[in-house]
Amino acid sequence: MFVGYLSKPATVKLVSTVRGFVWGHGKPQFTVFIDPNCVFCHQFYKDAVPLVESGKLTVRVVPVAILEQTSFTRAAEILSARRPLTWYLRNERHFVMPPIEQGGLSLKLPVSAVARSDVSHNNAIIRRLDQNHAATPTFVSPSGVVQVGLPAGEFSGLLKMMRSGGAQ
Q1: Are 167 and 141 in contact (CB under 8 A)?
Q2: 127: part of which helix (H) or strand (E)?
Q3: How many other CB atoms sit within 10 Å of the CB of residue 11?
């Protein structure tokens, strides 16, 4: 579902303030907000891996915590890491599928106060994008189009839309 509660320029400006990291080699084609415990975010990861590994996709990943209390700790662990991408990938590679649905990080890694603050800020931004609702994954094109969620089997359509600048 596309949302557009803010102007595209306001969305771009708002999203520029979040803390995340780049996955892939090239200019990010879009930003994706992920919760480390989100099964739909995990599906995005699985769909994106072959494209990232082949050099056809680069995304900016922004960890948020909206599903569970452990989401906050996992998101902060990822952002506290010297190499956040490495911890994000570890979380996804060890993701536990239903009935539990949780990320694969241990919840025992050191978490910095800065990372906790960054996760709180990221949470506020994702809520602002969809009028105080938050759902993951949420995608934002470079032009400021926001797509909340990823309908089953729609990754290729989403990718095409994001690459085209998010024309609606």
Answers
A1: no
A2: helix 113-129
A3: 23
- CA gap 21, 2 in Å, rounded: 24
What is the per-residue pLDDT for 151? Answer: 66
Which pTM was predicted? 0.90
DSSP for 3-46, written as a single string: E-SS-HHHHHHHHTTS--EEESSSS-SEEEEE-TT-HHHHHHHH
Closest CA to 62 of 121, 6, 108, 122: 122
Average pLDDT score over the chain = 88
Q: Tokens 């990010």 — which residue? A: 28
Residue of 125, 127, 144, 168 whose CA lies nearest to 9? 144
Which tokens is 66 given?
């909206």
Residue (of 147, 117, 118, 150) closest to 130 by Cα position:
147
Q: Write out pLDDT tens, residues 36-84.
A: 999 999 999 999 999 999 998 999 999 999 998 899 999 999 999 999 9
- For residue 130, the model assigns a pLDDT of 82
H/E element holding 140?
A: strand 138-140
How does residue 168 score in pLDDT terms, banded at 50, 70 and 90? Answer: very low
Structure tokens of 140?
């934002």
